[in-house]
Design goal:
This protein is α+β, with helices and mostly antiparallel strands and 200 residues long. The protein is 26% helix and 38% strand. An eight-stranded antiparallel beta barrel has the order 1-2-3-4-5-6-7-8. The longest helix is centred in the first third of the chain and has 31 residues. The radius of gyration is 31 Å and the shape is globular. The N and C termini lie far apart (82 Å).
C-alpha cells in the first residue's frame, strides 16, 4: 500500500502558519494519510517526560554502580563467618597520641552486622576521662580473615574519620589489627593497635 506524501502546497501553508507538517500514523494503518500539524504543547511534553525520567533513573544507576565498585574486591561472607561475626565485640584500642599528646588506652566497643558482602555497624571509643567518640563503619572481608573498613563520626557536624584493618583469629573469637585516622578528641591524625573479643 502506498502512502500519499504531503504536497508542496500543504508544506508551504504549514510554514506560513508556523506549524510543522507531518503524517498521522493512525491514518496510515487505516489506508489513508493526511497532514496533522503538531501542537507546541505536544512537542514540549515528550522532551520533558524523557528528561524527567532520566533525572529519576540516573541517581539510582549511579548508586548501584558505586556500591558495586566499592565491594568488587570483597569476599562473599559465608553463613559460618556471618554467624561468628554478627554481634558485639569489646576490647582495647591503644592510641599512640592521645588528646594530651601521650599514649592512651581507649575502651572500644564494636557492633557488627552483615549483608552478602558488606560488614556494617557502629562503634564507640571511650577515653579515661569517660568522654567518648561514636562512629559508623562499613567494609568487608579480604581473603576470608582480614576485615577492612572505613569509619566516620555518628554525630552530625563532628569531624572524625579513618580506616581499620583487623585479622580474625583461627577460632573466630578475637580480632587484632591497626587503625589510623583523624581523632575528634585529639584534634590530630591518630593511629594505634586494636584488640577485640566477642561478647558472650
Amino acid at each position: 500500500m502506498r502512502v500519499p506524501l504531503v504536497t508542496a502546497s500543504e508544506t508551504n501553508e504549514c510554514a506560513r502558519l508556523g506549524r510543522p507538517s507531518g503524517v498521522d500514523l493512525t491514518y496510515i494503518f487505516q489506508g489513508n494519510a493526511r497532514h496533522t500539524p503538531q501542537s507546541g504543547m505536544e512537542a514540549s511534553v515528550i522532551p520533558a517526560f524523557v528528561s524527567g525520567g532520566f533525572a529519576v533513573v540516573a541517581p539510582i544507576v549511579t548508586f548501584i554502580a558505586t556500591k558495586a565498585y566499592e565491594t568488587r574486591f570483597l569476599d562473599h561472607i559465608s553463613p559460618g563467618r556471618r554467624k561468628a561475626l554478627v554481634g558485639t565485640w569489646e576490647g582495647i584500642a591503644h592510641q599512640e597520641l592521645g588528646p594530651d599528646g601521650k599514649p592512651v588506652d581507649l575502651k572500644a566497643t564494636f557492633t557488627f552486622t552483615t549483608s552478602r558482602k558488606l560488614v556494617i555497624g557502629e562503634g564507640t571509643y571511650r577515653l579515661p576521662d569517660d568522654s567518648q567518640a561514636r562512629f559508623r563503619f562499613s567494609g568487608g572481608f579480604l581473603h576470608d580473615r582480614f576485615l577492612r573498613f572505613n569509619y566516620t563520626s555518628a554525630e552530625d557536624g563532628v569531624i572524625q574519620f579513618g580506616s581499620v584493618i583487623l585479622e580474625l583469629s583461627s577460632d573466630a573469637k578475637e580480632f587484632r589489627g591497626r587503625f589510623q585516622g583523624f581523632g575528634v578528641r585529639s584534634q590530630r591524625m591518630v593511629y594505634g593497635d586494636v584488640v577485640l573479643r566477642k561478647k558472650d
